[in-house]
Amino acid sequence: MELCLPKGKPSAKQFHDAHRLCELNYNEPKWVVFCGLSGSGKSTSIQWLQNRYPDTDFLVIDEIRTVRELLNLLLLSSKRGRQNVLIASHVPTFFHRLIRPLFYPQVIVKTDSDQGQIEKWLTDRGIHFSPETVKNFKRRYGINYLDLGLVMKEFPGINFDDSWHRFEKQCKVKRTPE
Asked: Would you tell me the crossing angle of helices 145-154 and 131-141 to the nearest 10 degrees?
């Protein structure tokens, strides 16, 4: 895993290339499919690639949500020719693997599976945590930066463990009948 700054635009914001996207050769056409939950970094990864490789002509397809939309890519593939395509998809990776042989090189990136991504996000912000608490968060929400940020903002604590326990406590509050 490596931290990479975009080549195209200088930026103070660093991107954690957990999926080694900068090791792929974009001089040869390929489809890169980012699969994951909302907030897991699909669109951020696509934006980072566009900034890092400004001279590469990427076709970006955002928000594939159904298998039907995924199958429509078959038509697109035959019409577009050989081109680099970046796809953000909510469809499970299983379905992408089924159609993989129909496309020229296809790389499937599961953005919501590596606990180290959450740990890196917390570490970069100076937030202490225990791996067990991160594991509990991941089990419930996957690798989801949107929800992670929400927990930290709405339930501030001295560390992630404290914020997570406050959040969990709030989720367990039950209304009593009036």
From this structure: 120
Q: In a 3-state reduction of DSSP, which class is residue 86?
A: strand
Residue ranges of E strands in 28-131: 31-35, 58-64, 84-89, 106-110
* Sign of the dihedral defined by the CA atoms of residues 141, 145, 151, 152, in that order: positive
- Round to the nearest angstrom and report the end-to-end CA distance of the chain: 54
Q: What residue segments make up the domains of the chain, in order of their start?
A: 2-110, 115-172
Question: What is 2-110's CATH number?
Answer: 3.40.50
* 62-93: pLDDT as tens digits: 888 888 887 787 777 666 667 788 888 888 88
Cβ atoms < 10 Å from Cβ of 77: 18
**Residues 115, 170: Cα–Cα separation, whole Å:** 24
Residue with tokens 């992670």: 148
- Between the CA of residue 146 and those of 16, 143, 158, what are the distances in Å? 16, 9, 20
At 102, list the tokens: 């129909």
